Task: structure prediction
Amino acid sequence: MMDLLHWDGTLSAKDFRIGAVAFAQKWESLNFAFPPWVWVPCPKHPWLASPEEEGYLSMEKICISRLNEEDIDQTTQIDTDEEEASCSGNKDVIDDATLVQRNHHELHYYDFHIVYSNTFRVPVLYLRAYCSDGQPLQLDEIEKELPTCSSKELSKSKWTFITQEEHPHLKRPWYKLHPCGTGEWMKLLFLNDTAQPKFEVVLELYLLSWFSVVGQVVGLRIPFKMLNDR
Amino acid sequence: MEAQKYVWDGAIPLQIHLHESQVTTLPPPPPALILAPRIGYLPLLASLLKPYFSSTLPPGVDTIWFDYNGLPLKWYIPTGVLFDLLCAEPERPWNLTVHFRGYPGTVLIPCEGEDSVKWSYINSLKEAAYIMNGNCKNVMNMSQSDQLELWHSVMNGNLETYQRVSSKLKLATVEDEHTSLCSSKSQQGFGETDLAGQVKTGRVPVRLYVWSVSEDFDDLEDMPKVDSWEKISYINRPVEIHKEDKCFTLHDALKILVPEFFSNDLMNVKSAGVDFEDALRIPSEDVSSDKVVEDHVQNAYEHREACSISSSAEIKLIRIQGIEPKLEIPFSWVVNNLMNPDYFLHICVCVKVPQQNST
Result:
């Protein structure tokens, strides 16, 4: 089987599909605030009904509430009822944020897609954001909602971090997190594991590990203790 | 390297009409007649079109975009590729409509002028570099002045400058004995040996655009116009070539990218069907060959699935840089001579598919 030492951190399209299924299952079993990831099959051509091979993972209409570091002193408790009605998920919220920016009187929704890149042979996170009336958010508005360290990265170079590109399947403008370098840090993630797992195990955990890094950029944090339960 | 020169000199005659909603003068201005470089991009024509139409445009912000028969044109696709794809029967001059208002932001990604086009080009170049070299460092580390010089050479169609600056990138190209025999100098590393002796396969950046039609037509002129980008499949997938394989043709490359169109050439499906799991258990120390095996197995799988539908899928047209190359031509020659300045080979295919009753 594939030797981890010689592995370059990338996946074949077929492996991505396997990994995606494993990730979606794990995500659901972890049972925290977010809805499940759904595999959306995508035919290669409009007329060709493809098997489940090609597609992407989708998690949509996520209401992200964010605690800005400047606002820490001004936190107010909000109605849990209101939060449940407007946000997806159950009462167990993730650690880092509970405050919705009340002064704006509007909630922002995010759609996340995990799409395979044939070029970089890794998963790529695509996202879009919109208001409750469907009006799309621009990049600068999204930037304001990202954790501060991500904003710093973005301000360094708008063009290399998050770019607006056509969604490879939906053919509409979406934002995408640049995948350059993913293979390298994915390899490091697994090489640091003293257990030296077989590739099959790596594949099972690949997307979860990948998302634990990438999700943080957009403020989706997976509690670490859940990651360590294997 | 004559073929590259022809490609760079290639141009599409355009007849550009200002959209009626933006015409404020009577009589309306005559259309602009422009020779647009094949390897260029439509928004770059703004520098000519804005002054030309300025006297009739209503006041306000100008964001340029084009449509062909109502279809908004994707500005990051090279002009020549758009023409090859959307005009089954080449229309000369090609009649386009230009808009300076009402940018269709739900369909097209934003374009803020020359800068957007430049960044799109650089990103494509990075992607191509990653495919060929396994990393984009050489493009990322380009000096500002080199980057600008490269971009200007593309904008102005200056092949000499382009070759000089791009050769500094040392992008691994396809070994091609046909081209190297013809040229006295290897400008871009054509014909050079492998960068690392161990590399057995190379990846070639390819962008394939497939337009599917469900009816047969005697004449290309009778073909329906593309009215939606949903009808076009965009396949952005590198093609793997074994460097020892001197006989790898354009046909072979297309069979890898769209095996569903070549089922007639396949040997008996049953014998071609390989079980995935068995294929993956083939012991191998070489990680890269594992992946090649996987990809070939995946193709066989797609063949098997697609066979039931596409036994009558028929390729009507294959166009690269406006020509219809014979499929027997070595793929390496096609890549080295017909690629765009972004190092991608753009291929337009029109295919007739059986009518689907339900979808």
Observations:
- Chain A touches chain B through 33 residues (CB under 8 Å).
- Residues 66-104 of chain A have pLDDT under 50 and may be disordered.
